[in-house]
Amino acid sequence: MVVGVPQGILDIKNATVRVNTLESTDISLSSNIVNSVVVEGNTDVSRDLEITGNAAVSSNLTVSGDTKIASNLTVGTSSNLFVNTQNGKVGIGTDTPATDLHVNGDFYARDMTIQTVTSLVHDRIAYSPAVVDLHIDALDITITPKFANSKILLNWDVVHETDPNAVFRIYRNTTLIGYNNTRSTIDHWNGVVAVPADFDNASTPYRVSINWVDVPATTNPITYKLYKHEADGASANIFYLNRHRTIPAGGDPDGGASNYEIGVSYVSAIEITQ
Asked: How do residues 241-258 score in pLDDT, each as one tens digit?
């Protein structure tokens, strides 16, 4: 090892230097001088830091000036953070980013949709016998939130036919959440929206859209359920899903005769980060 100190410059050749703490106002390291720099303690650089070879720091690195890296940057392993300095692409969870920002795994950002669960329901069902609290189980939707503070945006588009004097309600598992909370009691007229209905036994069913936003505060699986609630048991009526109420003579027993309308209902649950 040859060490020379001309004009305040430390010149080290053909040797590896290991230090616990390295402090300097200006450090310039070139691959023509050294192939690698290894610092086992903290490194504080108050001016610019430029390294054209390899640098390994096993503790903290603090640079108050500019940092220039001529080759690629890998933080941790290639599955953590990778920066391709040639094309500017950044990979998280990948060392081969295909786009400017390539994330291989879950990604969290505020007000961002991170998962959507949907279901198209084709079943034609007559819910009988009639009950006051009717669980329309064909329209259940289950979602497992990725974050406990997420909002869940719910939507039902329901093709149906029934009689009037009823409201739709929403349950989270077994807890009633979908109703108007400004009324002191949850009476039989209180829900998310009134159930469109008529006394017409002809062919045309209704379509109603129901929307709700929930903050379940959990990462456990949740099943959201749609109920039809009526005034009392005596006035409860059969609920027809995706079909009309009349069974024409010689027609399809579940309401599917070619001269009577049928439809498809839809339900979705969308998780939005906060």
From this structure: 998 877 655 566 665 555
CB atoms within 10 A of CB 37: 20
Higher pLDDT, 261 or 9: 261
Query: What is the CA angle 53-59-60, rounded to 5?
Result: 90
User: pTM for the whole thing?
Assistant: 0.64
- In the block, which residue shows the tokens 């899903």? 241
Cβ–Cβ under 8 Å, residues 134 and 228: yes
Domain boundaries for CATH 2.60.120.1340 within the chain: 113-272
Residue 267 CB coordination number (10 Å) = 22
Radius of gyration of the chain (CA): 33
For residue range 191-204, list pLDDT tens digits in order. 999 888 776 666 68
Interstrand relation of 193-194 and 166-172 (parallel, antiparallel or unpaired):
antiparallel
Q: Among 3.40.50.1970, 3.40.50.10800, 2.60.120.1340, 3.40.50.300, what is the CATH number of 113-272? A: 2.60.120.1340
Whether pLDDT at 100 is above 60: yes
- The burial class, CB within 10 Å (0-12 / 13-18 / 19+), for 10 is exposed
Average pLDDT over residues 255-266: 76
How many residues belong to the chain? 274
User: Per the structure block, which two tokens stand in for 164?
Assistant: 């009037």
Burial of residue 118 (CB within 10 Å: 0-12, 13-18, 19+) is: exposed
> Do residues 273 and 108 make contact, with C-beta atoms less than 8 angstroms apart?
yes
